[in-house]
């Protein structure tokens, strides 16, 4: 299944030509295409900043239709463990979305294919300790050895709503902080420094 999604992410230009040659989909395939389009169209694209996040969003929508994927394999008379056949199905679904001009998919596809300026997302796990205000907010966590690490809260991120009010209930809770390294100018230090910007926080 992951290979199918990877193929979609890498082959958006190919899908544009495939869509024109695509035969009419069967009932299950059309239902899956419509359901997938509805899911993608409900995504908040303003919160998807790079191809990695775009691919994850597509994967979440795709995997949410697992029952239909099984039914589609049966409709196509292929086995679920036949990776080549499942890749063709995945490519066909992508072509269907393009052919019926699913607006959400067209916009997401641009982000899926855009690798320019992409920053690697990493994650760190630790116990929540506090929020430091140094012009911007920094969320501080501590690992098992007690070593503290701070992460810059620069923009809205997935899970940020949990930290906008009182955070006493989160004290010492285990967090998974997803972050990307960026370079910013710090006026008080009169220079550029690399900081870890938060992209998401999950309470474990």
UniProtKB/TrEMBL annotation:
Highest taxon of the lineage: Bacteria
Signal peptide residue numbers: 1-21
The keyword Signal is annotated on this UniProt entry: yes
Keywords associated with the record: Signal
Protein name: DUF4252 domain-containing protein
Organism per entry: Mucilaginibacter aquariorum
């Amino acid at each position: 299944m992951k290979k199918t999604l990877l193929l979609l992410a890498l082959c958006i230009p190919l899908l544009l030509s495939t869509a024109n040659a695509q035969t009419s989909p069967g009932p299950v395939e059309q239902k899956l295409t419509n359901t997938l389009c509805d899911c993608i169209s409900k995504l908040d694209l303003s919160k998807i900043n790079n191809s990695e996040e775009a691919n994850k969003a597509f994967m979440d929508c795709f995997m949410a239709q697992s029952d239909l994927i099984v039914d589609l394999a049966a409709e196509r008379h292929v086995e679920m463990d036949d990776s080549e056949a499942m890749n063709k199905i995945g490519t066909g679904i992508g072509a269907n979305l393009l052919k019926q001009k699913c607006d959400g998919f067209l916009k997401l596809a641009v982000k899926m294919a855009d690798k320019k300026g992409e920053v690697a997302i990493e994650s760190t796990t630790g116990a929540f300790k506090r929020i430091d205000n140094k012009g911007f907010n920094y969320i501080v966590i501590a690992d098992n050895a007690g070593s503290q690490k701070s992460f810059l809260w620069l923009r809205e991120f997935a899970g940020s709503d949990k930290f906008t009010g009182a955070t006493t209930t989160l004290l010492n809770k285990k967090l998974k902080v997803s972050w990307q390294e960026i370079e910013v100018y710090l006026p008080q230090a009169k220079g550029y420094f690399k900081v870890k910007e938060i992209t998401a926080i999950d309470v474990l």
